[in-house]
Amino acid sequence: MHDWITTPVTADLLRGALDVESTEHGVLPHRLPARARAQNTDEQLATAESQPSGVRLVFRTRATAVELDALPTKRAYVGAPPRPDGVYDLVVDGKPAGRGIVLGGTVITVDMAAGTSETRPGPPGTVRFDGLAGGVKDIEIWLPHNETTELIALRSDAPVEPVPRDDRRVWLHHGSSISHGSDAASPTGIWPAVAAALGGVELINLGLAGSALLDPFTARAVRDTPADLISLKIGINIVNHDLMRLRAFGPAVHGFLDTIREGHPDTPLLVVSPILCPMHEDTPGPCFPDFGDIGEGRLRFMTLGDPAERASGKLTLQVIREELARIVEQRSAEDPHLHHLDGRELYGEDDFAELPLPDDLHPDAATHRRMGERFARIAFGDDGAFGSD
């Protein structure tokens, strides 16, 4: 039996969140600030920013056992097998030390064919890590990257205290569902988390599934967040939403960068174009799910665009890569801290032959690992955009 000490979950115990909302049950970490959320009307973005990808509890303790009560919001899909529960990763003194899940929680059942959903409230649950070594240690509990997670109570068999900030640089990354975590196996397995660990930096992950759309409120959130390094992975969502034409895309990118530079005039800023996605390389969106194999647990995506539509200004990944390279080259003449990376250096044709995209859009767990390792080598290497001074 343990003599438990309960510690309130407060903002000083959380890393990677831009806001912490008090709720009926506890606290809810957010990855966009309240002002940005107030300007958003899209349910997909609201869901994505409330899923704590890259968010972790960080504390120092002598505890040998730790429990966290949480209320997750899980998603189910009509006609599909149950989705796996969200994973909590335990990291002790920088090393993986365990993994767990929280049962129960609210379940939102989505009928993608009908475009409807139904919410069934459920009870909170507990994830427990015990058998930890004695002595003072720094503990991180990485929250599920794909489940909205209200934090209710943190218990331990010894007192906990916040970990003072160290001299590691803070890296803020913004991108799509691929940066959010898509089909990664766990929160420390998403490619930005892999890259951050290898690069020795603190991660703030603004990977927002389906929502890397050059929204001005997202640019302002990046502008107003303290960071030593910034990267923006732009393109795939703009194509698969069929959001804009080439005429609008270039000025929108300039505006997004202008806003960020208002708050970060000299911060190393890396613009990353899309990784390889064959269905959108030369074919515009929009992109839609294909439900043909949903009963076997396989969801695929397909594009309804026509390559001939490029002539009217519709965007493909090839067009976006060319435009991003042009914009960065133009701006870097006056902005020496602005850099460009072709996303195919993270995942290209040879990688697709070896590790194809399971649903034709999102990378799997092995590909996340590969992308994170490559980004760390390219961006954090001595000659990279984020190389040490």
User: What structural category do the secondary elements indicate?
Assistant: alpha+beta
Strand content: 25-35%
**In oligomeric terms, what are we looking at?**
single chain
- How far is it from the N-terminal to the C-terminal residue, by CA? 50 Å
Number of helices: 11
Helix content: 25-40%
Radius of gyration: 21 Å
Main beta-sheet strand count, sense and barrel state: 6 strands, mixed
Number of strands: 21
Low-confidence stretches: none
Mean pLDDT: 95
Shape from CA axes?
A: globular
Structural commentary:
The chain has 389 residues and is an alpha+beta fold. 25% of the residues lie in helices and 28% in strands. The chain is built from eleven helices and 21 strands. The protein has helices at residues 34-38, 43-50, 177-180, 191-199, 216-224, 236-240, 246-263, 278-281, 317-332, 349-354, 365-379, and strands at residues 5-7, 14-15, 19-22, 27-30, 56-61, 66-77, 87-92, 95-101, 106-111, 116-120, 125-129, 137-142, 148-156, 160-161, 170-175, 202-207, 229-233, 269-272, 287-290, 300-303, 338-341. Strands 1, 6, 9, 10, 11 and 13 form a six-stranded mixed sheet that branches. Strands 2, 5, 7, 8, 12 and 14 form a six-stranded antiparallel sheet that branches. Strand 3 (19-22) and strand 4 form a beta hairpin. Helix 4 packs parallel to helix 11, helix 5 runs parallel beside helix 7 and helix 7 crosses helix 9 (317-332). The chain is globular. The N and C termini lie far apart (50 Å).
Summarize the structure.
This protein has 389 residues and is of the alpha+beta class. The protein is 25% helix and 28% strand.
